[in-house]
Structure formats: C-alpha cells, structure tokens
Amino acid sequence: MCCGGSIASAQPAASAQAEVLFDAGKQLMAQKHFADACAKFDSSQQLEANVNTLLNLADCREKTGQLATAWGMFLDAEHQLRDSGKKKLETLAKNRAAKLEPRVSKLAIKVPAHEPDGLTIMLGDHPVTPGTWNTALPVDGGTYAITASAPHAQSWSISIAVGNERDAKVVDVPVLVPASAPPPSVVATEPSAPDAVASAPSAPDQPEEPVAHHSRVPAIVASIATLAVGGVALGFELSSRSLYSQSQAEANDAVQTSEWQSANDRYHVAQGLGIAAVVGAGVSVWLWIRSSGSSDPASAMIVPVVGPNGAGLAITGAWR
Predict the structure, then answer these.
(1) What is the pLDDT of residues 266-302, one digit of tens each?
(2) Which end of the chain is more exposed for a tag (fewer CB within 10 A), N or C?
(3) How far apart (Å, rounded) are the C-alpha atoms in residues 306 and 304?
C-alpha cells in the first residue's frame, strides 16, 4: 500500500512539472531565446509526452536551424493527431512538415560494393545501420565525423560540414586497407654433424645487365615537331624575303616603311623558330640514340651546314 501510494502521487507531480516547463518554454520563445526554449520544451516532453509540446518543440527546432529534427517532429505530430478529431492541429503539423521538407539538408554515406566483413560506420558517436547506407538521409546542419572500421583493417575517418539548409553532401567510404601483418619469424637451424656442413659454392659470375631499350615514340614525336617548327620557320623566312622585295618596289614611303617593318618582324620570328628547330633536332637525335639502345652517344654527330640561302643541321653517324 505504501509503495502504491508513492507511485500514484508521482504522476501528478510529473504533469505539474511538465506544465511549468512548457510555460517557461513559451515565455522564452516570446523573448526569442530559442535555444533555452527548446531545452524547456524538451524537458517537458520527457516528463510527459504531449502533442502540443511536440508541436512547440518542432517550431523551436526550426528557429534554431535544426531543420531535419523539426521536420521529423512535425511528421510525428501529424501521425499522432490522425483520427484524434483535432483536424486543425493535424493540418497545421502537415503543412509545416511539407514546407520544411525541401529545405532540409541531406547526407549520403556510400559504401563499396564489396565491403569487408564486419564493416562498421559511425556518424559521430552514433552507428549508421547498413540499411541506411548509400541513401541520402535528412540531417541537421553542422560538422560530422564519419568513421569506418572493420576487423583486420585500418580504420578510416573524415570530417564533413553540412549546411543548415538545402545542402546535399555525399561521402564515399574507400576500400579499407588491410592491417599490416607481422613479418614471418625466421627459425635458425644448425647442422646435426660437422661433416654435414657443405662448403658454400662460389657465386657464379654476374651476367651483364641487358641494355635498356626505350620507346621510340618520343623520338618520333620530337622529329615531327622539329620538322613542323622548321617548316614554319622556313615559311616566315620566305614571307619575309617576299615582303622585303615588295617594299623595295613600293613608291609610297609610309607603305614602304610599314612593309619593311613587317618583313623585319617576320625575319626575327623565322630566326627564333630556326633556333627552336635546331634545338629540337638535337633533342630528336638524342632520343633516337637513346631508343636504339646505343651506349655510345658519340656514334652520331650533328654537323651545322651553312649555304648561300640559309643554314641547317646535318646528322651523320650510325646507331643500332
């Protein structure tokens, strides 16, 4: 009888405390102290669950930017109010949830198709159940630590920031690296008798290292590029000469000066490209020698050739 009386008297006290906390939360909401108001509503709901308190708590969570939590609470309130006869409150909860849904941020944790046995995913201090893997789920804005671990594998973790509203983040969990295995133990053995020890045979002569053969693709590319640059240089040279001859026959001084200047510019461009072609020729020769496997770089020579109409390079020698 004593114990029964104590339990019966505790129920009204909890209801009274819940009511006081609810009123305090309403006052704090009016003063725009939303974080403190949420704490009061939450404590009131824990003492005595009430759909009116849940609606106020959902409204408070929305004002603090916890949109996913608020959305879930409005949905919960709507479910509780179905078939309750309180159509006005049910419609309120349904409308608030519908308006919040497109604003809620989402986070998806993608796991490899062949995840290791015993894989565990943690979101902060809370485990992420396998049924929610690879699915974009609503979350409140904030920074989250995601950790993946499995037996006999090195754990992996990452920190990701999610915006309060309309953000969508995806975290790809990599294939976990196997834990490093200890090196195998080496067991030393001794011969059973002195006569069982055989003299170590002398080491055979080391074979000569084969000559490394390199791909000829770089040599071909360099040769083509050199020919192209040389061709462009020749084009500028011929164009410069033609324009210079044209300027000599021009009667108008201004036009003659302009054409002469243009011819001079083309001449300088031709010179620069010619130098580039010379360098390219040298690189091409070196690449051809390298790709042929010759160890004697002096087996081929680059000889400059100068003629009345220009200058160039001649390649002499032989290589394999």
Answers:
(1) 777 767 777 876 777 777 776 667 666 544 444 455 5
(2) N
(3) 7
HSE, side-chain direction, 13 A CA sphere, residue 138? 16
Nearest 5°: the CA angle 48, 71, 78 is 60
**Is residue 280 a contact partner of residue 260, using CB atoms and an 8 Å limit?**
no
Q: Is the pLDDT of residue 162 over 90?
A: yes
Strands (E), the chain: 105-110, 120-123, 126-128, 136-139, 142-149, 156-162, 168-172, 300-307, 310-317
Look up residue 67 and give its DSSP letter. Answer: H
Residue type, 195: D
Residues 148 and 156 sit within 8 Å (Cβ to Cβ): yes
Q: Give tens-digit pLDDT for 234-244.
A: 777 787 777 67
Residue 72 zone, left/alpha/beta (φ > 0; ψ -120 to 50; rest)? alpha
Structure tokens at 105: 């941020």
Q: Which residue has the tokens 């011969």?
A: 191
Tokens, residue 247: 């300027």
Nearest residue to 226 via CA among 187, 181, 278: 278
Contact status, residue 103 vs residue 166, Cβ threshold 8 Å:
yes
Provide mean pLDDT across the span 204-228.
Answer: 63
d(CA 263, CA 246): 9
